Amino acid sequence: MPDTGSTLPRRQLGRHLMEWRSRAGLSQAKAAQLLEIGASSLQRLEKGQNSRIRSRDIVAACDLYGVPEDLADALVGLARQANVKSWWHQYGDLIPKDFDVYVGLEAAANELISYQPELVPGLLQTPEYDLALVRQFSPDASVEDWNRRVQIKQQRRHIITRKTQPVRLDVVVGEAALWRVAGEPAVMAAQLKHLADMSTRDNISIRVLPFRAGFPGGLSMPPFVILGFGETAPGEPAEPPLIFLEGVVGNLYLEKGDDLESFERSYDRISEAALDAVSSRNLLRQVAREHESRER
Length: 296
Known about the structure:
By secondary structure, this protein is α+β, with helices and mostly antiparallel strands. The chain is built from 13 helices and nine strands. The chain has helices at residues 8-23, 28-35, 39-46, 55-65, 69-80, 101-108, 127-137, 143-156, 158-161, 176-179, 185-198, 257-273, 277-295, and strands at 87-90, 111-116, 168-174, 204-209, 224-228, 231-233, 236-237, 242-246, 250-254. It has a seven-stranded mixed β-sheet with strand order 1-9-8-5-2-3-4, sandwiched between helices. Strands 6-7 form a two-stranded antiparallel ribbon. β6 and β7 (236-237) form a beta hairpin. The radius of gyration is 21 Å and the shape is globular.
């Protein structure tokens, strides 16, 4: 069983340290020797199971592995929050604003379950749809910066389109996301056709929660993602699943069992009220045609 004392900041810190040690061409034993710590301590640190993390050890490891200064600052920030179970990551707080914790988690997951009431989920956005959002979010940024942000988002999509063990994606999108325009009508038409096409993949389920479904469970739920990380053996999770909620000034990561059960129940209610896969695909294509008619 995974160490019950592990936390999200510890696991993310361990992932980055192991990646950069490998980049530096160092074995775990050699790195431990150069850092003057026990090999078992470094092993626990890389697995996110070390409850006593010293910032100076992280600084030394970053220096040994050649970690860039901005990323090193982020890893020290993770170390300082290592014992936090449910974690509110405020942008620019202990961790630099540009360090995206969620992207690393997304890449490590083997299943993503998501509810998005008003927006097309990031992994399913077309470049044109994403660019329309980026331009509104950062109107004063350069064209180069806009394009860089879009390119990063598109690179993330590889986890659901790769041929070898693609991530399982189960999404319910609110009908509002089909009508709320990002960019021109032609952009929306292409985006909805893309959703319909992606929904035919074996590892992707996309369904629409229609307006007429009201509020399943009597609640207006915010957008959320439940991340699963697979099993090391039947019934034994590789690491605890968690809930991600994105905010304007920071992100919330929930690991407690009660929180997970609550969001899973909410998703079950939303999923039951949503259209089935075929009806959702038909609605996506129908609304795409309506956007196209507005472009003419």
